[in-house]
């Protein structure tokens, strides 16, 4: 199965290199593939499974593949515009769609390439793997910036494994990117609870997952990813993904589980329409009555947003950068409130070098929402340090499921209330350690950026870091410094 998927990915990607000579970027290529794949699979569903088409006959695959030259280009452009006005998943996929392939001959070749594969005949896992392979290829293109929407799949899988979603959950990702958390949660439920009843199968298609994505192009990739994983609402007018800024308001629904990796970068911005009709982005605090503290720090706002959208006793796993753990002012207020009103039980310190966006030092924060209480709900915070002396890179030494196996074992998802630390005075090298609520709030600014292990080579006389690790550390520090300079410049421009 893996070989079949990788072969098709490579075949599709080889053609991308041809299109790049004409100025078609990786992102544009995957976008055009998404449009054409959807049309092709819709036709296969009609022909092979006698299912009603979701595409008007005037714009289906049959109408497209019969054309060539300028006629093909014109009809393709018309098709994209027409389907962009649809509702539901179709409308989300084709929203604001444009033809980026200006040479009709190359468009014809891409249509022929897709026509040559029988997509509906492929196993669902294979189709999903092919598309995720294309998404990862796109994320590797530094120039496109797509990496910020792509969370490493081994990390997603580990988080889903310890969170253990069930068929009764409503799972949300308020910054869903290309849908990694949503598809992984869907696949986990389908596998762990098989065989599913008809009612459960319907629930998986229609109700299990919900997402928000602010970027149109990313939202279409997400919806296509969900579609290939079997997440296809029976109602054509419904899409599991809302295109928009989830931070602007509390959703009408509360969710039993939130899994998310909000976009990197600290500043929140809102769209301002000037008198001349121009639109500009202005950085300003998000003001919501359900938030503990008003701040323009986007990451802190997402933490508050996730807590607000959880149902009572709902569970969350949120990827956050280090600044969320140590920043003062609003950060300290939010951390104290979170520790008091929620059970903040686990923190995973992630290794550097695992994200396509450079210089990211991130963590996964796990917490459960609880009812109002005079005493704090957090009793202990368990911290797993997967960062110190863990030197990973995207290509030579990538994050794998094996890397995260010990964390999963320590988390003890079967019963997280029966955990055992691996750190003690006798075993100071242990990566799994517990801190009490009293210890946490006694720290300066309630700083949760806690570490006890020492990096090799820190002390005088110790061996130097390996060249790859040293280079990665330098890139990290430079990227972090550049981000700080950008924020300073932005603040000066606002002033």
Major sheet = 9 strands, mixed
- What would you say the CATH architecture of the largest domain is? 3-Layer(aba) Sandwich
CATH class of the largest domain: Alpha Beta
How many E strands? 11
Structural class by helix and strand composition: alpha/beta
The helix-strand sequence is HHHHHHHHEHHEHEEEEHEHHEEEHEHH
Based on CA atoms alone, the radius of gyration comes out at 24 Å
User: What is the number of helices?
Assistant: 17
CATH H-level homologous superfamily name of the largest domain: Vaccinia Virus protein VP39
Low-confidence stretches: 270-282, 458-465
Tell me, briefly, the overall form.
globular
Mean pLDDT across all amino acids: 86
Beta-strand proportion? 5-15%
Distance N terminus to C terminus? Answer: 57 Å
**Main β-sheet, spatial strand arrangement:** 3-2-1-4-7-9-8-10-11
Total discrete domains = 2
Portion of residues within helices: 40-55%
CATH domain topology of the largest domain: Rossmann fold
Written account of the structure:
The chain has 495 residues and is of the alpha/beta class. The protein folds into two domains: 2-131, Ferritin, CATH 1.20.1260.30; 245-477, Rossmann fold (3-Layer(aba) Sandwich), CATH 3.40.50.150. The protein contains 17 helices and eleven strands. The protein has helices at residues 2-20, 26-49, 61-65, 69-83, 88-94, 104-115, 124-139, 153-163, 180-192, 198-206, 216-228, 298-309, 322-326, 330-341, 405-411, 437-442, 467-494; strands spanning 171-173, 209-213, 241-243, 255-260, 269-273, 279-283, 310-321, 342-349, 362-369, 380-385, 432-436. Strands 3-2-1-4-7-9-8-10-11 form a nine-stranded mixed sheet. Helix 1 packs parallel to helix 7, helix 2 (26-49) packs parallel to helix 11 (216-228) and helix 12 (298-309) runs parallel beside helix 14 (330-341). The longest helix has 28 residues, at 467-494. It is globular and about 70 Å long. 39% of the residues are buried. The model is unreliable at 270-282 and 458-465 (pLDDT under 50).
